[in-house]
Amino acid sequence: MKVDGHETEAAGTLLDVILALGIDLPHLCKDDNLPPIGACRTCLVEADGRIVAACHTPAAAVQEVQTRSVRAIELRQAVLRLTARMHGREPDVSGGPRSGELWAAYAAHGLERPSYPSRPRSAVDLSSPFFEFHEEPCILCGRCVVACQQLQHIGAIGIAGTATSARVTAGAAVAFAESACTACGSCVAACPTHALRPKPLRATHRPGDARGEEG
Amino acid sequence: MSNAPAFALPRRARLLPLLVERHREHGFLDRGSVEHIARQLGMPVAEAWEAAASMTEFHFEPVRGERSCAGLACSLRPGWREPTLPAGCLFRCYEPPASGDERPFPLEMVRRSGPLLAPCDQTWAGLERARNLGPAVALEELERSGLRGRGGAFFPTAAKWRAALSRGRPLALVLNAEEGEPGVFKDRALLCLRPERVLEGLGIAMQVLQPAVTIAFINGAAEPAAAAFERALAASPIAGDVLVYRGAGGYVLGEETALLNAIEGRRAVPRPRPPLPVEAGLFGMPTVVNNVETMAAVSFIIREGAAAFRELGTAHAPGTRILSVSGRVSRPGVYEVPMGTLLSDVVVEAGGAGDSSTALLCGGPSGGFLPWDLAATPILPGRYHPTGAMLGAGGVVVLDWSSDIRRAALTMAAYNAEQSCGKCTPCREGAPLLLELLGSGRTAEVDELADVLQHASLCGLGQMAPGPVRSALEFWSGVFV
Amino acid sequence: MEKKVRSTCPFCGVGCGIVLHTRDNRITWVDDDPANPSSRGMLCVKGRFGVPFVEHPDRLTTPLIRREGRLQPATWDEALNHVAEQLLRFRGAFGSFASAKATNEDAFVQQKFVRLVMGTNNIDHCTRLCHSPSVEAMLEQLGSGATSNSYTDYEDASCLVLVGCDPGSNHPVIASRMRSALDNRGTRLVIVNPRRIDLAERADVFLQPLPGTDVALFNGLARCILDEGLEDREFIQQRTEGFAAWRAAVEEHTVEEYAGAAGVDPEALRQAARLYARPPARRGLPASERPGSCLVWGMGITQHSHGTDNARSLINLALLAGQLGRPGCGISPLRGQNNVQGCGDAGCIPDSLPGYQPYTDDAAALFEETWGAGIPRKPGMKATDMVERIASGEIRAMYIVGENPLLSEPNLAHAASLFRQLEFLVVQDLFLHETAELAHVVLPACSFAEKDGTFTNSERRVQRIRPAIPRIGQSRPDWEIIADLARRMAPRVGIDPRQFAYGSAEEVFAELARLTPQLRGMSYERLDREGGIQWPCPTPDHPGTRFLYADRFPRGLGKFVPVRQSRAAAELPDNEFPLVLNTGRVLYHWHGGTITRRVAALVEQMHEVPLAIHPRDAAELGIAEGDAVVVRSRRGRMTASAVVTDAVRPGSVFVPFVKLQESAANFLTNNVYDEPSRIPEYKVCAVRVEKKRPRPREVTGATPTAWRGT
Predict the structure, then answer these.
(1) CATH assignment, C579-693
(2) Is B284 in Cβ contact with C186 (below 8 Å)?
(3) pLDDT digits (tens, 9 = 90+) for C318-366
(4) What are the backbone angles phi and psi of residue A7, rounded to the nearest 5°?
(5) Which of A18, A76, A103, B51 is least buried, going by the fewest C-beta atoms within 10 A?
(6) Which chains border A (3 or more CB–CB pairs < 8 Å)?
């Protein structure tokens, strides 16, 4: 098959092939080691003239892929602008370990400020001693949920509600600390914005720790 | 045929039935009851909760009063006001305004009958014949008939069955009786009036596919249809072999992978494709999902032969199609017509004005509007117009464009925005924006957004969501400025 | 400056791959490693958020020497010269504990020092306190002491039988892999545990036996299999011996009698037997393959005065059902510490040389040739014996690396009185813990984040750790300290100091691999290139071994060993101490808590020791959720916070052995031992519980559901 004119072997999904060639393509809802979700739609490419999401399109069925056709770029730009709608403000990219992916993709597509009217959300969950959830930058990509349900098989979180009511939800709409969450942190690791972010790693520093006297 | 499902479904497959039961008993679901059910099934609470919360018909707090329909046909009635407890559609578009629970489909609303809606004897002759033919020959017969799926996507039925069979066993069979598209009530008509025909088709499919599990998934609100189906099932040769599931709403259940997720006790959202359901569907099994009308056609084909089926309709689209006609017509109801019949003929038969004032909504929220001068088009799979109007599931709402089109387009846009399952960004974020643009008259910006929805959305429902808006602007843009 | 360093998690025996992210030499984040075949991109709370202990201000930064009764800073030269002089005095009355948290390289140098320089085999480590009965039984019956399968076999199995273990708390990533099998493959699950652990919610059969009745329970299971003819006759005939005598012993009682003794429903016992011996095929198992069962156990089996008999009864069961030596089956004693497998592999056990090689002339020859000196042939003392024999003067000096026996030994008051009698005690560790406070010399060691080395996990996979931050203070890797000490002492005892002139951990590993047949094919170069490798790996082109015993057992035939239920425990409840105390661990703390007490978030999550008590007992004692309670045994007392839950049986209480707020379960536990293995009976002793004083439940992040220990 050919990708942007390069001959290459068709193995796995189009996204696998594209990333293996070192081509920069956003894929906000796709984790390297997790099954495709298909939610963010930021990995759109033109495959044999059709627009497809690279993350869940098998490479074997495709002969020619254009990641940088005008059509593909326009559509990705539009999807990214819709995604940015959910961001209230410029995020602190140093938040989570993988945060910053949205704004990197934004910049790579020549976009600047969010252009659609924003749809701000403001829920915050600080209940876990290990990490925090800030709904504002959450783009509902679902990576955290897949990490929780399909990687760790804990099932502490889901996405509850439909349409614009959909939100990342612990348990039956309870705080993280009251859910089945075991704080494995896979959701934090997976988050491409900084909606889920670790609290700073801290040692205890009270005197007498060695004797287990704290608390 | 075996007398019991050979395949024990995982425990979480009981989530939806238990939620539905609990909801029926108490009128709503609370946190405690969902937690209790999750524990009972040994499944994570958050997964049970997200599944419950993806069902738009579930209430999570007590609700008082009766819902009234805010669907198109009902809202056309003189003096209609936005109800306090609105419903997107109560599926009685033939007797507007509708409110409260569903009622059995009245026989007199079968305005034109055909092989599927005609009375059905209970000899189970088709099932007997399938048994005599054997699975392979029966499947060949079906193939010769040229039947294509009546859910709206028109995929060749025999090819679907073959694809599933080629993946090996165990496989699953799902009868899709979720019928959740506003303005469509033909599956309810079949289930209420001709359940034996549907059951016979289902039995034939079971004969051919030998599924490990067969599920009939019936719309949660369609009480009379479900009762009629279950009564007939109990008296049928496949009694005991079919699990009946009841839904809890959500237009997205029309997307078959979302339907499978609902059965699996998961959030009812579409899955990325591939794999197709016939490759890996219900709990990973190759899965055939067929619509009620398709099954009824299967019964006719095996009873009367492929040739008899092909005598109706056109060479490329044999058989009949049941249209659900409502709106500004004097004879609303279901019309079973041969494929290829002119759309305008059916509208006139139903008593529509049939002049330049007429606009048709064809294909509901996923379809689009059509002006009368384009209505003399044969009823066939696919689009009547590139902007959106299509046969789809066979819904036809007759309107007067000058008085109705603006509200109709906004109603459809609002429905699509509300019914977005919320999974993919273009549909979740784009559909409400589309409504906003249309409502505020910023029609120049619609095109770009409609284009993203159409080409970037994950599932067909999102991809087709711009149809009503686009088509309305194509033909009557002046109304929106 | 930002860096990312691939390494291996330092907590439990699962051995998850981690990537340490640092900024300006501080650890900022611990990422998972999807390429790691043991963890596949998973981590648990301790691996992900529990590493700040390495940067705790309590870290020892200089050697300390006790002067005028107080531990005072010293230079390395002063400290090591002092230790050298003192230890030379105590040759012949010396014992050493190695650390299952340190590397294979650390362990290897330590046992070499003990054997070569101190001239004794008195070296042991914490396996004595966790899986020594499993190792005893496996060596006796099969000839090798390791988990036979890989984690991937849990996903390939058609049935998982979990006995006396709580992977959800103690091996969380293994629990995740098991849940993935249940979710994705319809794998059956049997749980045997006196506590209803989290995974029991998913079980097809959950057996909740009376404490200490394991032999009866497993003989009962075997009896069901025999009664229903579910045994694997071909396997028994071709691969085992001793079947007839064992069968006769098992058939002394009926299934009903066994079930009655264990306090379980006989029908449930039969279901469990059928599922284990002949499980229905999981989804996706090729029709040509026999559905397999994995038998997985933890310290609920071993920490009893009849722990070895318990383990034997399990191995008998595996031999009977033929659930060994294929993909998707096997036996797994889940290892507790990150390198408890490797510490034993590297020779830190009193009864064999590295690679479990016996003290025969044949086996010793290679060592003596390589090391240029003779090694003692007399088996050494086991860890628990070393401690008990301080009293008799047989042990007068000890060198303890990375262990805190004054938290982990049973009957802590008794243990502390013994340690105080030592004439010379060296403790080498990260922190000044309870044992270190009694030491004459304390040596500061590096943490896993500051050094090179290898850990061997529960599936025999040898994996690299790599330095991510600079050494804290003057701390040094354990192997380096001991090698330095050995070089100072060697000439005085006729050993060539060049035997300890290692320039790097890699050089140590090369020698370990050369001397250990199952590691011989491994090298840092290979481990860096290929990732972790599972032993046995005898040659450089050998890919490593996924499961053991495909064709034969190391001892030849597998051996059935008849076992009979003895007294349930050395100490059973009576009027004065009416409840049975069961101890274990929790998700949010690491064993005794020496490490995790120093991680702010983990302490916030759980800051006092919980005690799980059945609602019936709680009601009788007037105890409510969150009440402070006092627990007493004949040996000591502790305070805890009550968690009222029917996850424990009436008449039983459960307390994790973590020490928080000066309270620890091992003040209560009984220092009686299983004879062959010398493991203490941590799992059963008699206690009395009473309410301390009423107080409101504190509002914290911790809740009963978040506490996965019950």
Answers:
(1) 2.40.40.20
(2) no
(3) 999 999 999 999 999 998 889 999 999 999 999 999 999 999 999 999 9
(4) -70, 135
(5) A103
(6) B, C
